[in-house]
Every structure is written in structure tokens, then in C-alpha cells.
Design a protein that fits this description.
CATH class: Alpha Beta
Radius of gyration: 16 Å
Organism: Chelatococcus reniformis
Number of strands: 17
CATH topology: Fumarylacetoacetate hydrolase, domain 2
CATH superfamily: Fumarylacetoacetase-like, C-terminal domain
Largest sheet: 8 strands, mixed
GO molecular function: catalytic activity
Strand order of the largest sheet: 2-1-12-9-8-15-3-4
Strand content: 35-45%
Distance between the termini: 24 Å
Oligomer: single chain
Structural class: mainly beta
Shape: globular
Protein name: DUF2848 domain-containing protein
Length: 228
Amino acid sequence: MGSPTLRFLIHAGGRSTEERLTIHTAVIAGWTGRDKAALETHIAELEALGVPRPATTPVYYRVAAARLTTAAAIECSGPDSSGEVEFMIVAANGRRYLGLGSDHTDRKVEIYNVTVSKQMCDKPIAPELWALDEVLPHWDRLILRSHVEIGGQRSLYQEGSVAAMLPPLDIIAGYGESLADGTAMFGGTLAVHGGIRPADRFAFEITDPVLGRRIRHAYDVRVLPVAG
């Protein structure tokens, strides 16, 4: 499938520059909850859908880097997929950056194999990055949020502080190897409001109230027929 080269607006050192980055490695870090009660809530949500409990937490899933996309729409086989907002760490140019992604996953496939389900869908990401070292001093102040649009009705789907997950450097350390340039790692997600469900459109964002800025992205979900 190859390694995608994506265009990002990068904010670092008081400057904003457009760069094309090639991502060779994509990693989805799952079950990264810092609050064990909240982590249990998310595990229970997925158990209700038939997804088995993870053997360990955190766990790191490799997916094809070609699944990463900044497109405004993705196509999924069947109506059983859904998104979830996650912060994303990107290693490039000898630095680490903070970005934003949606771990869009096929929930039907997830019931029998989580790793395969992660590979089934494209992973939308926002085309904007912040220097990670510029947000680490106030990391827990960052807010993740997502909305779903179903049948023309928009509603809040997820909202909470990144403090719900382990700090990014801890997640990276748990991976067991340093992040080489060209690596993108998703950092975990929040429990949802109203249960996990598919949507026609998924919008997601991360807000930094200290520096007064926000990264946001949205995409439509186009359902392809399943012939058999």
C-alpha cells in the first residue's frame, strides 16, 4: 500500500509552516487510560458489543501507514464502523509533534479480532500539528472533543481532558522503542456519550486553552454495500 506523504501546517517556535511529511509507520496505542475507572468504562462499552477484554494495558496495534488520510470523506464496507477522537504523536525532522486523529474502526470485525478491525478502515487525521514540547508543560489542560451527525442531527459524542489517558511520553516509553522519524502514534480515546454507534459524519478537535488554539477536522462516512 506504500507510505503516504501528507501535507501538514506545522506550528512550532512561533512560526507556522507547511510541510509534506511521509509516514512510514502507524501505531494505535489502545487501553491507555490513566484513570482505571474510566478505562474500565470503555472496556465495558466494547464488551457490550462482544469485544473481548485486552490481555494487557496499554496495547499497541500496528496498522498500515497508508490508512492515514487527511481526506474529507472515507469509504467503509457496511454500516458497522465508527470513529473515536485521539491525540496523535508524529515524529518528523528530529522532533515530536502533537496532532489529532480518529481511530475509525469496524465494530463488527472488532468482535472477533481487534487487530484486524483496526486495519479495516482508513484513519482520518487533521492536517495540522503543534510542537509537542510546547504543550507538555500544560498537557493536562488540553481537551479532546468529538461530535457525530446522524440523520442530519449533530450531537456531542466525546469530551474530556487528555489527562484521562497516560501522558504521551509514558505511552511512547511503553512501546518499547523510540519513535523514529516517519512514525505516527495514536494515544487512546475517551468514553462516549450514548454508546458507541455509527454516524454519517464525524467531527473531532483538540483545544489548548492555555495558548488559545485548536486543531479540528471532520469527515463524512460513505457506506459501501456488502455483497456477501
